[in-house]
Amino acid sequence: MEKILDIVEAIAHEKNISKQEAIEGFKEAIINTAKKITSSYDGDFEVVIDNVKKNYSLYRVITVVDDTKETQENGNTLTLSQAKEFDSSIEVGDKLNSEIVLEDYGRTASSSLFRELEYHIQRRIEKSIFEKYKAQIGNVLHGIVTRVDASNNTFVEIGELKGLLTQRNRIKGEKFKHGDSIKALLRYVSIDPSYGMILELTRTAPKFLEELMAHEVPEIQDGIVEIVACARIPGERAKLALKTDQLNVDPIGAAVGVKGVRINAVSKELHNENIDCLEYSSVPEIYVTRALSPAIVQNIKIVGTKATVDITSDQKAKAIGRSGINIRLASMLTGYTIELNEVQGITDRSAQASLKEFQENNKTTDTSALEELFK
Q1: Pairing relation of β-strands 44-50 and 306-312?
Q2: Which fold has domain 283-356?
Q3: Which of 63, 169, 305, 360 has the most CB atoms lying inside 10 A of its own CB?
Q4: 3-class DSSP assignment, residue 195
Q5: 205-280 topology per CATH
Q6: % of the chain residues with pLDDT over 70
Q7: Which pLDDT tens digit goes with each residue over 255-304?
Q8: Could you confirm whether domain 139-202 is CATH 2.60.40.10?
Q9: Crossing angle of the two packed helices 19-37 and 4-15, in degrees rounded to 10
């Protein structure tokens, strides 16, 4: 076994784990093998690695005790007087190392070491894979559908592992078949008794929408535009609150893209989910007003986490939305409980547009009043 470290290094390279991890696994395998072949000894063992000679040494650790104490039958202690026969400077409590040569125990030790090494290397491979994917939690992963079971659970092949997309984490109306290429957000890595290590995936989380937007919109990816909040009812509708600190950047325009190309690409990935983008405001009243778009509100009063919104009858249906979807999303996005208070009157968009157009068309072009300032 003189060149066994070369073998361990080769295993580390083949299994894509670090050399140090492989050596630690080897040490554990050596110690467990020693415990099995020296069952009468229940003390500690120590493995010393010689990186120059590419070999190792295995020692049984023996504790030095006072002469008044009897040495234990398991051989893990030695009296002081007995120990001084080996080293006159030794004291009570010191440790002595007694070398063990596994080769002396024949094929039993070799086969046991092989099984132990295989086990501990495999554990470290699993740990390495676990840590690799744990670091990717919250990221979008790509995979290929391998099968869909009777419960509509979708199994996806992602790298070394299998991903699981349950029906609960799938957008309503979506159907996958064997061979489909899909994207999903990694929720967490778990150990399943039936499937082993598995990746829990989702396509319904708001974070999935945020990650897709960051992929499609360079301004979001680069941090120029920030997604402050996101609310969605998967497969139906979503609202995004965006902001930027750069005056020359339009966050809504950047997210939507030319002719809606960016937002449409994300919507298509989400089974044609409608996505509304609005500009975030640190003023709660303005934020809630924008979140209730396309409805036009008359007045807002906020107390604590409750927002009371005055709205005319013709705008109430727009504020609520089909099946209450608009007001629910607005509440989820802003964090306020929104209560609508119907007031008399009608909000006429055409009248407001006509007034704005009249004001634009009738701006004065007479600059004589400014002439006195430049004399």
Answers
A1: unpaired
A2: GMP Synthetase; Chain A, domain 3 (3.30.300)
A3: 169
A4: coil
A5: GMP Synthetase; Chain A, domain 3 (3.30.300)
A6: 86
A7: 999 999 999 999 999 999 999 999 999 999 999 999 999 999 999 999 99
A8: no
A9: 130
